[in-house]
Design a protein that fits this description.
- The protein is built from no helices and 55 strands.
- It folds into 4 domains: 313 residues, Methylamine Dehydrogenase, Chain H; 78 residues, Immunoglobulin-like, CATH 2.60.40; 91 residues, Sandwich (Immunoglobulin-like), CATH 2.60.40.730; 116 residues, Immunoglobulin-like, CATH 2.60.40.
- The protein is elongated, with a radius of gyration of 41 Å.
- Strands 47, 48, 50, 51, 53, 54 and 55 form a 7-stranded mixed sheet that branches.
- About 3% of the residues have low confidence.
- With 662 residues, it is mainly beta.
- A hairpin with an 8-residue loop joins strand 25 and strand 26.
- Keywords: Signal.
- This is Ig-like domain repeat protein.
- InterPro entries: Quino_amine_DH_bsu (IPR011044), WD40/YVTN_repeat-like_dom_sf (IPR015943).
């Protein structure tokens, strides 16, 4: 351990270093729930309604992730390089996956998530898309310039593969497919080029029959969906900025769903409800329509979970209905490549607009009026709305108030007399019906409460290091709540604010708690309030000294001059003062020297700061004066701020007296 040296021959410059630092430490709807997916990409989304499972293929990750209806992962199926298209068997026992990296279609049991079969495709390469129709599994396959359609018939004892089922149509690579399993309608369109030709097949017979092949609006088809009755086909592509609808008889235009942005996905529920998905950074991403009705029923806009200015966007082909139409599942991604499964509940029901307005402030126990309005096409006058009041005495779920009915224009109002003060929230809820989704809205009013008297003692007091100090809070009159919390927050960023006591005050209104005063400490008393008296918080700052002890060495004897103890040194001996002080990171001791003058007074020759070692010690050697007859005194101190921190109060050690002789 190195010993520092101070010379007494000349006055020392006073080095003040104050370096104490304290560380301070209703437009479009959103998805009803969302869960992150551990995938690198999203190729296709499939819903198994029988087992309430969602399958998401990940071509880049070479796997399929299986979740439940809440998005919780139930299984991960690995070893499927470049897996993309998915299809569910009619009995919901098998999920089929087009695995381009293996040039196969793989079958997975839905009850165990284990691979049950792997089907070779008679030389067909890169199967990417799947569709079920007329009891066969149809697949789009082919590398660049060799695209085609094949079928896999699993109805017999042995699987039967048939390639080149695309008739006179020509596909650059594996085409996008859409189908109606029951009517035998299969529709194909180019997925990787701008070719805008759609081809409709009737696959109900022994061989596919081309029904229509025609240039339509689009190209680079991201998704194709056929209506459950097999009469209409809807496409999603980067252009046009809507989802066009065509007749499957001759591909004549039937109408369009004005989704308003780059088409990314489309799926049709069993009842014909259409979910049209767009890749929209700054607008709604999912648009819901009734079949053949061109006005939107509902829209959903994804939030921004990344770092770009726009919101998350829908993955290509990233929409899938639950078979009962109760949910729509959507896969989105952000600019950081994170994918999310979003669950949209009751998407086929329109979302009414409900507003509630309460006064900003109101006196307690006085009547107030709350107003609002329910807006939505087809909602009749006299619709009943549920009303709930939430306050400090009736926390969640709150107190049910009498229901209120809407007027002809959808407006409503009701009166209430809040019995409790503080924040009072009025929630109004509409239960919904067969065509309208449930919704609710609320507004809060600040209801006045009486002021609370709360005091805390010991403010400004200074205590020795480690003293156990009792702080007492006094609570005045309140209504029901008589509980007080006492917190202690020591100075310094490394110690947290800590609750040291929480209890009811005694009959005098007092609550005491003991603090171990090793640092300056802000003590806080907190009353949370009740129905009639406001919350209150008061603080008291108390201060703690440090421990300081010093020993002198190198002297040849001790003795008294008057009543003062002196350490005797020969004039050429260097005294050593070894100080031990309460340690804190970066802390320094102030070493001070004074000399006794002819005027019989002590005169300062200066002071200097020396850092403490990790064990709190700081030895300093005082240079020998080289002459006798000199009396001096030295001491070590902690100076708040100047000693490198401010977590304790200034503390001076005892003077040590020195006498230099021959």
């Amino acid at each position: 351990m190195r010993t520092r040296t101070v010379s007494t021959a000349t006055a020392l410059a006073v080095l003040f270093s104050s370096a104490a630092l304290v560380a301070v430490t209703s437009g479009p709807a959103a998805a009803d729930s969302a869960k992150l997916l551990n995938v690198k990409s999203a190729g296709d989304v499939l819903v198994d309604g029988e087992h309430q499972r969602v399958y998401v293929s990940d071509p880049r990750g070479g796997k399929i992730v299986v979740t439940d209806y809440t998005g919780a992962v139930k299984a991960t199926l690995d070893g499927l390089p470049d897996v993309e298209g998915l299809a569910l068997s009619p009995d919901s026992r098998q999920v089929y996956a087009a695995v381009s990296g293996l040039n196969r279609i793989v079958s997975v049991e839905t009850s165990t998530y284990t691979q049950s079969a792997s089907y070779a495709l008679d030389g067909a390469e890169k199967p990417r898309t799947l569709a079920l129709a007329s009891g066969k599994l149809w697949f789009g396959y082919g590398p660049d310039a060799e695209g085609g359609i094949g079928s896999l018939d699993l109805s017999g004892d042995q699987p039967v593969v048939a390639l080149g089922q695309d008739g006179d149509a020509s596909f650059y690579a594996a085409p996008e497919l859409g189908s109606d399993p029951d009517s035998g309608v299969l529709v194909a369109g180019e997925k990787v080029t701008s070719n805008d030709t759609l081809t409709v097949y009737d696959v109900s017979g022994e061989k596919p029959r081309t029904v229509a092949s025609k240039s339509v609006e689009g190209g680079f088809f991201d998704d194709i969906a056929v209506s459950p009755d097999g009469t209409q086909v809807v496409t999603a592509s980067g252009a046009p900025y809507y989802h066009p609808v065509y007749s499957t008889k001759d591909l004549s235009p039937v109408g369009r769903y004005d989704s308003g942005d780059y088409g990314a996905a489309v799926d049709i529920a069993p009842d014909g409800t259409v979910a049209a998905g767009t890749s929209s950074w700054y607008g709604p991403d999912v648009h819901i329509y009734k079949q053949g009705q061109w006005s939107k029923v509902r829209e959903y806009e994804f939030p921004n979970t990344g770092h770009s200015s726009g919101g998350d966007t829908l993955a290509e082909g990233g929409l899938a209905w639950a078979p009962d139409g109760s949910r729509l599942f959507a896969v989105s991604s952000n600019d950081a490549g994170a994918f999310t499964l979003r669950v949209l509940n009751d998407p086929a029901k329109s979302l009414p607009k409900l507003t509630v307005t309460a006064p900003e402030k109101a006196p307690r126990a006085k009547e107030l009026t709350v107003k609002g309005k329910l807006s939505g096409s087809g909602i009749p006058a006299g619709t009943s709305l549920m009303v709930t009041r939430t306050d400090v005495e009736s926390p969640s779920p709150g107190k049910a108030l009498p229901s209120v009915k809407t007027k002809a224009d959808g407006s409503f109002s009701f009166k209430d007399t809040p019995p409790a003060g503080g924040k009072v929230t009025y929630k109004v809820a509409y239960a919904g019906d067969a065509t309208h989704a449930a919704t609710s809205a609320s507004d809060a009013v600040e209801v006045s409460r009486s002021a609370t008297k709360l005091t805390l003692d010991k403010n400004g007091k200074v205590y020795s290091y480690g003293a156990d100090v009792s702080f007492t809070a006094h609570l005045g009159t309140t209504y029901k709540n008589r509980t007080v919390e006492i917190w202690a927050d020591p100075y310094g960023g490394d110690k947290p604010n800590k609750l040291i006591k929480k209890a009811k005050v005694n009959s005098r209104g007092d609550l005491s708690a003991t603090v171990d005063m090793k640092r300056d400490t802000v003590v806080t008393a907190v009353f949370s309030g009740d129905a009639r008296y406001a919350s209150k918080k008061v603080t008291s700052t108390a201060y703690a000294k440090v421990k300081i002890s010093s020993t002198v060495s190198k002297h040849y004897k001790t003795g008294k001059i008057g009543s003062t103890k002196y350490y005797y040194f020969h004039k050429n001996t260097d005294p050593v003062l070894s100080t031990k002080m309460t340690y804190y990171k970066g802390r320094k001791q102030r070493f001070e020297v004074q000399v006794y003058g002819p005027d019989r007074k002590w005169h300062s020759t200066g002071s200097e700061y020396f850092a403490l070692y990790a064990d709190g010690t700081s030895p300093v050697r005082l240079g020998a004066p080289g002459e006798s007859g000199i009396r001096a005194r030295i001491r070590s101190s902690y100076v708040n701020g100047s000693s490198g921190d401010n977590v304790n109060s200034t503390t001076h050690g005892a003077w040590k007296y020195l006498n230099f002789t021959r």
